[in-house]
TrEMBL record:
Classification via CDD domains: Ras_like_GTPase
Highest taxon of the lineage: Bacteria
Lineage, top ranks: Bacteria, Bacillati, Actinomycetota, Actinomycetes, Kitasatosporales
An example Gene Ontology molecular-function term: hydrolase activity
Gene3D superfamilies registered for this protein in UniProt: P-loop containing nucleotide triphosphate hydrolases
Name this protein carries in UniProt: ATP/GTP-binding protein
InterPro entries (alphabetical): Gliding_Motility_GTPase, Gpn, P-loop_NTPase
Length: 208
């Protein structure tokens, strides 16, 4: 990844006038981990959702044990948008499907992304390993965010870091995907991490 993925140039008319940078961010994770809810919680526009009802074709294929009330699944992507840094930065959020059979689509959605938020569920930490492996292969920087489900066990973040075999510098935080404020905090954590990998000043300085 390189700094070219921080896009700049004249802001389209539907963005805040102060926008000087934009970036594509992928919201990834296993099936039923809360990606659609996360995107919907933070998006300033009505999120685009490409979902279909879960049918009998999912039996034996999609693991519904952790989400028995789930009736739909993302089959293409979710899309949302949010301004940060005093409206100087706009993030375009692309939520991926969770099932591993959509891996070719994961690869396409991560192309050109500056970074990724990987949602994880403590009831099935192994579920995010394939996503993490793909991002590592594509050299896409990421943060891991534990979606705190009401009935999920809680563990110290350091224990979770070890269980996920994360590098010491990889951000690891918690959020409630239903709560926009905690999701925004997770995005800010990722952006701060990404600016350490690029030129921080290029993100916040206005164009001359």
């Amino acid at each position: 990844m390189d700094s070219a993925n921080w896009s700049d140039g004249p802001a389209p008319h539907f963005l805040a006038p102060a926008v000087t940078r934009s970036a594509k961010i992928v919201v990834a994770g296993a099936f039923g981990v809360g990606k659609t809810t996360f995107v919907g919680s933070v998006s300033e526009v009505t999120p685009l959702r490409m979902e279909e009802p879960i049918t009998e074709a999912s039996v034996g294929v999609d693991d519904l044990r952790g989400t028995p009330n789930k009736t739909t699944t993302t089959v293409a992507m979710d899309f949302g948008r949010i301004h940060l840094l005093g409206d100087r930065l706009v993030l375009y959020l692309f939520g991926t499907p969770g099932q591993t059979r959509f891996r070719p689509l994961w690869e396409g959605l991560t192309e050109g992304a500056l970074g990724a938020v990987v949602l994880a569920d403590t009831r099935d930490l192994d579920g995010c390993h394939e996503v993490l492996g793909l991002l590592e292969e594509q050299r896409t920087p990421y943060s891991v965010v534990i979606n705190v489900f009401p009935d999920a066990p809680r563990y110290p973040l350091e224990e979770l870091r070890q269980a996920l075999a994360l590098d010491p510098g990889t951000p690891l935080t918690e959020c409630d995907a239903r709560d926009g404020r905690s999701c925004v905090y997770a995005l800010i954590t990722l952006v701060e991490y990404l600016t350490t990998r690029h030129a921080p000043a290029s993100l916040v300085e206005p164009r001359s």
